[in-house]
Structures are given as C-alpha cells and as structure tokens.
Amino acid sequence: MTSVEDASGLHHRKTATKGASPPVTPIKNATSNQSNEKKENPPISLPKILSSNAALAGLILTSIIAILPRIYLIWFPQEVVFDEVHFGKFASYYLRRQYYFDVHPPLAKMILAIPAKLVGYNGKFLFEKIGMNYIENGAPYFVMRMTVAMFGASIPILAYMIMAESGYSLAVSFITASLISLDNSLVLHSRLILLDSIMLFFMVSSIYSYIRFFKLRFHPFTTQWYLWLTTTGFLLGCAVSCKLVGLFTFSCVGIFVLYDLWRILDINRNTTISEFGKHFAARAVSLILVPIVVYLTFFYVHFSILTNTGPGDAYHTPNFQMQLAGNQLAMNTLPVYFGDSVSFKHIDTNTFISSRDEIYPLKYADGRVSSNGQQVTATGAETDESFWTVIPGELFEEYTNHFDVNGTRINDLPIPPESLIELKVRHNDVVRLLHKTTNCVLRTHDVAAPLTPTNMEFTCVNSTDEKAYKDTLFYLKFDQPSAATKDSEGNLIQEELRTSSKRFRIVSKSQNVAAMTHAKKLPKWGHGDQEINGKKAASGSNTLWTINTVSGKNVSDSEETKVTIPKMGFFAKFIELQRLMLEHNAKLTKPHPYQSTPASWPLMLRGVSFWTDSNYNRQIYFLGNPFGWAMSILGIGMFSVIILGILAGHRRNFDLVSAIVERHLMRNGLIFAICYAMHYLPFFIMGRALFIHHYLPSVVFGYMVLGSMLQFFTVDNYQQYALFSPVFSRINLPILPKSKRMIAYLGLVLALQFLTFCYFAPFVYGTTLTPSQVRSRKWLPSWDFAFTNK
C-alpha cells in the first residue's frame, strides 16, 4: 500500500534493503532467456532514452531554454556596463595581487577572476568608467561574462530539479523553470560581470541540497544523509561568501532545521534523547560550523592573494596596512617629538584640524549662545593654519633645555641622542597644542558645539590664560597601542607616535571628551568647513586622527624612517575587515537617482539604467518581466489565502483539500513562501540605500510559489503526476493534465511570459529602438527610459 508520505511531495528516497538478493531466474527459462538476449536488449540511443525518460528530456530542454537567452549577443556591448566598473576592477586587482576594499565578501569576485587568469590576462585594465571599450583595452570580458552566464543559467535548472524532487508534475516543473529562464531581470544580471547570479546559484543550490537531505529523513546517519547535509552547509557558506544577503538563505534553512528537530523530538516518534542529540550535533556541525569554516577559508585565500599595497589600504588601520608589501607606512614614517609642529588628519573625512583669527558668532541661528571664542574647524586642505606645536603638559628638563614654553628653540645646538629619546611623544602622553599662526592653545570646555548641541565646543585661548589651563590639556591615546616595553632601569616605555602609522584620539583631560568631526558643513560664518567638537563617548572612527606632516621635516632626509612592522595574524585581519565591511555597508545612505524602496519592488515601479548609446538609440535597462512578476505576486496572494483557508478549516473540523494536497502545500509550498519572505522582508528594516536588484532572490522563489499554485489548480491527482527525480521518471508518467482547459491555461502562462520577455528584450540586449518603440514600452511613467523624446 502506498503511504500518504510517499505521495505528498518531498517524499523520502527508498534505499535497498540490506542483504536483499536479486530475483532468481527459473532454470527452465534460462536457456530461452539467453537465446533471446539480443532481441530483448536492442542498442540504446539517446532519443530512445529521452522518449522513455520524460524527466531527463524536461531537464535537457530546460537547460537549453535557460542557456540560450543568456549567451545570445553576450559579447555586446563591447563596453563597460553599470557595475562592471566595480566587479571587473576587483577581478583585475586579484590578478595584480593588489589589496582593495569592498563591502562584499570575496568569493564571487574571485570566481570572476579565474577565467581571466586562465586566458592569460594580467589585470592591466581597471574598468574605470562606464562606456570604456573592452577590445581597445585588451580585457577578457567575453569569458568573464560567459562564466556569469553559466551560473545564471544554472538557476532555472536548479529550480526544475527542486520542483521535481518536491513531487511536482513534469509540466509544472518545466513551466516554473521556464518562467525563471525568461525573466528579463534575471537574464540581464546573468549577462554582465556582476555578482548576483553567482550568489543566486549558491542560494538556490543550497535549498536544493537541503531538500535532498530532508528526503532522506527516514534513513538518518547514512552516507548519503551526511553527504547532502554537509553539502548544504558548504553551499550556504558559499552563498554568504558572495554577499552577506546570503545570510537570508542561511536563516531559511535554520527555520527548516528547527521545524525538523521539533518533529524529531516528538515522543510519538520513539526518538531517544541520545538519538536526538546525534541529530542536533550533526546539524550544528554541518550547518553552522561548516559554513563558518567555508567563509573563513575564502577570506584566508583573499588575504593570501592580495599581498601587495593597493587602493584599499587607506580603509584599514596602520597595523593592517604595514602587512602589505610596498606600503609606505612600513618604510616612510617619522617619529614625533615635543617641539614639533604637526598637522592632524582625520581618518574618516581626510580633513585637518585648523584654526584662524575669526570667532564663533555669539548667537547661533537656533538661539543658542557660543563662547564667542576663536574658531577651530576641520578643513579639506592642509595649510599653514593646520599646524600645531606639541608642548608637554608638564614641562621637564630635557624640553626646557632646548625649547621655551611656546615650543620655540632657544639655541641652534644639536639635540643629543639621549635627549631625543626623552623628547619623543608617546601613547597616553599629556600635551598642549599651540596653534602655529595665531599663537594660542587648543581648548575644549562645557559649551555646546555649533552643530551638535550634545557635544562640546573646541576653541583656542591665550597660552597664558591660567583659568583655562586645565581645559588645554589633552591625552594622545593610541588606537590599538603596542604593549609597553621596559628600559634598562625597569621603567615602562610606551609606544612612540609616528607620522601616518599610528591612529590616536585627542582626549580632553578635564572634560573626558574626544575631538571628532563629521561631514556636515558649518554655515557661511564657518566658510563651509566641518565642525570640530568634543564627543563624550571616545570611541568610533570619527574620533580617530593621524599625524600627517611634521613641519620642516622630510622623510627622505631622516635617518629614522624605518619602523618595526607589528605582527598581525589572520583572525586579527579578518575581524578588522568584517567590522569595516559592516560599517561601510551601513554608511551607504547617500541618495542615488536609481534607488528604490522594498515596497515598490514587486510592483516594478522603478528600473535602473545600466548603459546607453545615443548614437544608435540603444540602452540596457534593468526591468523584470512584468507579466511574470505580476503572476508571482498573484500566486503568493493565492497561496496565502489557501493556507489560511486550510488552517481555518481545521478550526472548524473540516478539510478544505485532501490530505495529500494539504501536505504538499504545507511542506514544500511553504518552503518556497518562507524563502520568498526571508529574502524580501529584511530589507524593510535596512537603513542603507537599496535598489531593485536586491529583490532578485525573492523573484526566483516567487516563481516557485507560483509553480505551487499552478500545480494546485491544474493537477487533479498529485500522486499520479508526481516526478520523484529530475533525471529519472517512471514508465507511463502523465506529462500534461487531463483537462484541455488546464493545458491551455499552462500554455497561456508560458506563452505570455515568452512574449513579454521578447517585447522587453531590447532593454536586455541593448538593441536599437526608435523613440516611438521606447515610448510604447513605457508602461509606467516612473520607468525612465532614455531616448523617449529624441
């Protein structure tokens, strides 16, 4: 008797019984069987295999439909398109082995570099701007785009395999995959040097792998069970290693695993606590530890390749930068001494602490009152007004032997080496900073800053002002200081301050606030400079500074330019880079002309212009398949209503659908719906700028939900039509529904998807359209196509 479990989708795979013997041929028939062997086993041909194996034929046809739209005219345009500017450049940096910084993990970018390396490309072209010619610059764009196309073509193939493994009919599995194959946005992203198709491949393949694992639930701890479980973890690690939104897929699988473990824990299943512990441990290792190891491994490879100094150095701490071959911080830095005049450069905004003989307005526009003191601001350029003489907070003998109280040399005699050691500025030293051009000292006090009322004002006062003296003392506190050493007498010696190679905070001794600045500009009275203020929480990169220049000293003239390179292990680098990735990703809030909100994505209210050619009225414009996206939303809506109806029926003790259909919807249909929601809803709480391409993972899973609804409305016998594998099918498997009307509905859905794809295909392939043809395709006024009025 066939169980409901077998026929409900996500059915388990049966394994051969241990010790089972093959059927024995009766002796009396043996001779006749041997004599007729040739007649019963004619030569096998591919057409014959396909004619007897509809599932395999469907998979091959799906592959053809997936590949052709993605490789058609893939060599055009022969120019840099949209974000190929970034990701092509990053691939070149891998080949140059030059360090770069990006907010995304490295796997997809390393994959893009592999085909370029295989054809002998050396990374000479840096994809600097949209429209640059690939042929003229010798870039292997064709093989790089083809690599992306193969990953993109794999997505509908995987969708077919998922639907087949989940027990859907061949027709529905094929149509679902074809809808994905013929989605304009997915095709477009599969034809360019972009990351999303590679990421989507790993996302969808991890869901496929988990389904294969789940189907072995009645055969736990077998080789195949462990294989598919571990493969799922590996693929999840790869998805996260392409883009951090891969964590959404990780969350989906986490939900499925929690449900699975809750089911296993049921006492009615006779699972012992030790068996449950084994289930839990296997999943924890494979789905938590394995992805973490995979993620770490790709970053280890990333650091191993990018060993030379490059454009990404400046994002990192000096310790990190000095690990890179050729970095100037490891070769050209100067020690800073008391009496030196130095400039302070801000880490985040590259501005300089400056002052001038102008005062803050007594009353600000909001009615608040200032100290009416001398302005201290952050300027974009280093000028004479950016230099400050470093004076010890408490004068000592070695200093007074050579300098007066204002840091001026009292004689021209050379300073002996033993005195130079004492004059070096070090971590945690207390200093006063004398402005070189106005001859006053830096001060912060309990007066509200001009733009940030919660922070304190920075100003300058006369160096002889005794009342303000305590407010002019500042600690120089290093960020990540090295451990103190001991001299010959056992005294602790702190790390010395050097130009560029050390980051530090300027912290008021009396007020315990740190000097910081931000990008917001002062009004006209402040000449558009940035505000300097005292931040109470002395943390964050906006309070970090370096010494940029020592007045009158050149690195080339100094004998003290070499610095000991501190050791920095892999995990220290990894943690620093993760922090920077998260910080800079969160800072992507600057308005962009093509950004959009998550609420607008399903309705496709806004597209994105990727490339234009005004000479021939050609453009590439990101747009989904309007018919397919509308059908997906309709399918998700219908699925939600049906699920609610089933649950409501249970409350009233009646069944809305059969047990088989209900299990099919509540198991694999719900998997697709959860994947759609988990890859879409988190964007609503993100503060960074968002774009419609962030919706692509949900597009794929939305089509699968639609496939679930097509099955619900067109297939009357789930068990009879169910595929159990994407490559093998039973004899006499029915392919199309019995109802001609249902066949017509399925055919109409596929035909309209194809026709809509073709209608908007010029925006995918960049083919010429007349202005009237462009206008006819502008179904929404917010679709800002080019050349509509030419």
List keywords for this structure.
six-stranded antiparallel beta sheet, 790 residues, 42% helix, alpha+beta, Trefoil (Acidic Fibroblast Growth Factor, subunit A), 16 strands, single chain, elongated
Structure characterization notes:
With 790 residues, this protein is of the alpha+beta class. The protein folds into two domains: 429 residues, no CATH class; 222 residues, Trefoil (Acidic Fibroblast Growth Factor, subunit A). The chain is 42% helix and 12% strand. It has 25 helices and 16 strands. Strands 11-8-5-4-1-14 form a six-stranded antiparallel beta sheet, with no helix packed on it. Strand 15 and strand 16 form a beta hairpin. Helix 4 packs antiparallel against helix 8, helix 8 packs antiparallel against helix 9 and helix 20 packs antiparallel against helix 21. The N and C termini lie far apart (70 Å). 41% of the residues are buried.
How is this fold's topology laid out?
Elements: H1 27-35, H2 37-40, H3 46-52, H4 54-71, H5 84-96, H6 107-118, H7 134-137, H8 141-165, H9 170-181, H10 184-189, H11 196-214, H12 223-242, H13 246-264, H14 273-305, H15 318-321, E1 341-346, E2 352-359, E3 374-379, E4 387-392, H16 397-400, H17 417-423, E5 429-435, E6 440-448, E7 456-462, E8 474-478, E9 485-486, E10 492-493, E11 504-508, E12 514-521, E13 530-535, E14 545-550, H18 570-586, E15 608-613, E16 618-622, H19 626-651, H20 659-678, H21 696-714, H22 718-721, H23 740-760, H24 762-765, H25 771-776
Antiparallel strand pairs: 1-4, 1-14, 2-3, 3-13, 4-5, 5-8, 6-7, 7-13, 8-11, 9-10, 12-13, 15-16
Helix pairs in contact: 4-8, 4-9, 5-6, 6-8, 8-9, 8-11, 9-21, 9-23, 11-12, 12-13, 12-14, 13-14, 13-20, 19-20, 19-21, 20-21
EC number: 2.4.1.109
Keywords: Endoplasmic reticulum, Glycosyltransferase, Membrane, Repeat, Transferase, Transmembrane, Transmembrane helix
Pathway: Protein modification; protein glycosylation
